[in-house]
Structure formats: C-alpha cells, structure tokens
C-alpha cells in the first residue's frame, strides 16, 4: 500500500530540500582547505606536507563515516544522524583553534570533523531521494551542486577571519558557524511515511540512454567478483586523486607555479567550487542523453588535459583559473557518475554497501594524492596524474555492464 501526499497531513517536501541545501552549502567548505595551508606553515612552522595531510585525514574519515552513517540512518532516522554530524563537525573545527601540535590538528579537524562531515553529508541525499521519486535526478543534482557552491561562498569569509583574527581563531569562528548551520538544516530532515508517493505520480519505466538497471541485485562479494567492480575502483581512485591533488593545494599551486598572492590564488577555490557544482549537474544530464561511456571518456579526457596543461605550459592568472575550472567540472562529473554506475551495474538492492565498497577508494585517494603532490613537486605529480587519467580513458573502451544489465 502506498501513502500519497493527499492521504494525510505530511510536511512539505520542499522544506526538506531547503534544510538539505543549507547543510550541503556548509559542508562544501571542506574543499577550501588550501586556504589554510600557508597560514598554518607561517604560524607554526609545520611543513607543507604535514599541514596538507590534515585535509587527507578529513576526507579519509569522511568516506568512512559516509558508509557507516548511511546504514545507521535507516534504523534511527536521518535527523539524529545529521545532528550528530553537525555537532562533530562544529566541535572538530572549533577545537582545531587550540591546536599547537600538528597531531592535535589531525585529531580535531582531521578525525572529528571528518567523521562529522561524512555523517552530515549522507543524510540529505538519502532523505530527499525518498521524498522525490518523481524528481530524484533533479533534486540529487541540486543538493550535490550546493556542496560545490559552498566552497565559493565561504572563501571570502575564511580569508577575512584568517587575515583579521589569525588562522587559529578562524577555526573557532568557522566551527561555530558550520555547526550552527548544520544543526539548523538538520531540523528539516524528516523521513517520509512508509510507502509514500507524491500526489498524482506513478512510477514509469526509465527513459534515455544509459539508464538500464541490473536485473539482479549483486551482493558486495558478488560485485567484487566481477571486473566491472575494479573498473569503478580504478576510475574512482585515479579521478579523485587527480582532483584532490589540485583541490587540496590549489592556493599553493597558484603561489608557487604562477606567482599569485594568497588572495588571488584563493580564487581557484571559487572556480573549483563553482565548476564542481556545475559538473555534477551537467555530466548527469549528458550521461542520461549520450551514455555513460561517452561521459566517462569526456571526464577523464578533461582531467588528463588539465593535468598536462598545468604541468607543461607556463601559466598566467587566467590560464591557472581556467585549468582549475576544468578540474572542478571533471571532479563534479565523477562524483555524479560513480553512484549512478554502481546502481546500474549491480542493482539497487545493495546499493549502499556496494557503493560504500567503491567509495573506500575515495578515502584512499585522499590519503595518498595531496601528500604525493607535496612530496615529489607539483609539476611531476600533475604529470603522473595526467598519465593515470589517460589510462582511465583507455579503460572506458573495455567497459561494459555485467551480465544481465542493459547497455547504453
């Protein structure tokens, strides 16, 4: 039996979207880490590699929390998990203001805030997906886009706090701000009644290219026994590594490779955030109309071109910002494509566990890529990433769904 919005008084589902957008905008500030690297080096004398590892830890624990929180929210509800995520995020970032040791920074901003961000991130996506079976693609794209826009909105705020109060006090103010916004947004996260359907809506067969779902639901072990699972893992690791290699140290790249000021180089945070949001929307639409293979080819081709350009071509301010735009749109496209392909290749029945197994390699890439870029130098790291992304393009040529799945 289904419950429609006309059957009884239920909350306006767009109220849930509003709260979700507020949460995702706040969480998008995670991608502004490059603004903190140099101020931390200047203030405490830590090495660039040590400071950027904080960002790696944040994303690694973010990926762990996404997997765990996604399962917990089905039992206790999205609001409780989102509240816990908001408290952990705000507390972790605020407590980073007391860090005088790099290991304290790792524990606060890396571990605590990372766990909180992951818990808060997964709840709006899952909740809105249940409220909008008729507009799932549009709403999911809108929420993912808000995550990208968040970095753009918070960049001037972060720079203002750093320049006027110092990097430590900036963490305190930002922690209070992030935590408050996340808690406000979490109040809107209410799961729909069981069997809910929007008034006047009936499920219809999927249309468009590249939308066929698996006719069987693979368990995680069954998925891992297929070559397609390892294709997803490689694409995830190569693409995320290339993206985070730039995102994590974008401001440093702008200063060291182009000679920009911190504020000028910080504009790369804006371009990456904006085009990250655009990429999540655009590549979702492109893949629905032209196929998943076409889209993956485009994403990894753009990744490789941007890596080679930044490594080999002398850049000015405009060229640097253009390159970061391409990185942002490719990173956003990858974020939209991976869960979609996981669902289509291995079914919806175990999508949480199956995508969680793939998403682990997001965290692994976060641990490896930023430190790798610092250790061997930006130019060499970009060349390695460019070659890896060329390998991703060639892998697409051999990609086909598992047995029993429609093709695009």
UniProtKB/TrEMBL annotation:
Can you give the residue ranges of the Major facilitator superfamily (MFS) profile domain? 12-404
SUPFAM superfamilies recorded:
MFS general substrate transporter
Q: What CDD domains does this protein's entry cite?
A: MFS_OFA_like
Keywords for this protein:
Membrane, Transmembrane, Transmembrane helix
Name any one Pfam family assigned in the record: MFS_1
Against InterPro entries, the record matches this protein to: MFS (IPR011701), MFS_dom (IPR020846), MFS_trans_sf (IPR036259), Proton-linked_MCT (IPR050327)
Which parts of the chain span the membrane according to its record? Answer: 12-31, 51-69, 106-126, 138-158, 170-191, 229-253, 265-282, 294-312, 318-343, 355-376, 382-399
Domain of life, per lineage: Bacteria
PANTHER family xrefs: MAJOR FACILITATOR SUPERFAMILY (MFS) PROFILE DOMAIN-CONTAINING PROTEIN-RELATED (PTHR11360:SF317), MONOCARBOXYLATE TRANSPORTER (PTHR11360)
The identity of this protein, by name, is OFA family MFS transporter
Annotated organism of origin: Desulfobotulus pelophilus
